[in-house]
Design goal:
Layout lengths: L13 E3 L6 H7 L4 E5 L16 H6 L4 E4 L2 H6 L4 H13 L3 E6 L3 H5 L3 H13 L8 E5 L13 H18 L6
Parallel strand pairs: 1-2, 2-3, 3-4, 4-5
Length: 176
């Protein structure tokens, strides 16, 4: 059921995720109460990593959140869970909050492994996250992104229910 929770809109955050080059511009023109989040972060720290943007550099630009695990990064750039975990570690070490995307591939979806995949992706970052209230979880099934196949409301609701229960069981009821 879609309306199993009511939300107080005054407690909702609004986040913009512009391309890396536009972060400072968007920060300069948005109103208070709108957060600006980076779409990506390097899995390595500062150093000679051409084209990469480190978590330290994002923090220098007063970026507070970073998107990690996005389906396009997983699929198009072949970022496996090890790479995603490295990005999470770098971001957290620099005080960045996470917008953490989880989701299953077409093969995993067809094999009905959604819960197992989500659990694995969450368990991998569980120990590194000390403040789950500063982490946003996003269900983003790889099989439904840019494929023409749409996840049904029931499929999405089931995955979100799994995420809420996982947080309740593994982090604490107050965080769910």
């Amino acid at each position: 059921m879609y309306n199993d929770m009511e939300y107080d809109q005054s407690q909702l955050d609004f986040v913009l995720m512009p391309g890396m080059l536009h972060l400072p511009l968007v920060q300069a023109i948005v109103h208070d109460g709108i957060k600006v989040c980076a779409q990506n972060v390097s899995a390595t720290g500062n150093g000679a990593y051409t084209g990469e943007v480190s978590a330290d550099a994002l923090a220098d630009y007063r970026i507070e959140q970073v998107l990690i695990g996005h389906n396009e990064r997983r699929k198009d750039y072949e970022e496996d869970q090890e790479k995603v975990n490295a990005k999470v570690k770098e971001a957290l070490q620099c005080g960045l909050n996470l917008v953490y995307c989880v989701g299953e591939s077409t093969a995993q979806h067809e094999a009905e492994q959604t819960d197992e995949v989500l659990n694995e992706q969450l368990q991998c970052v569980k120990e590194g996250v000390s403040d789950w209230s500063q982490t946003v979880l996003v269900y983003e099934p790889l099989w439904a992104m840019g494929t023409g196949t749409i996840a049904s409301g029931d499929q999405t609701q089931e995955a979100c229910h799994f995420l809420r229960n996982w947080v309740k069981e593994n982090v604490g009821a107050e965080e769910s």
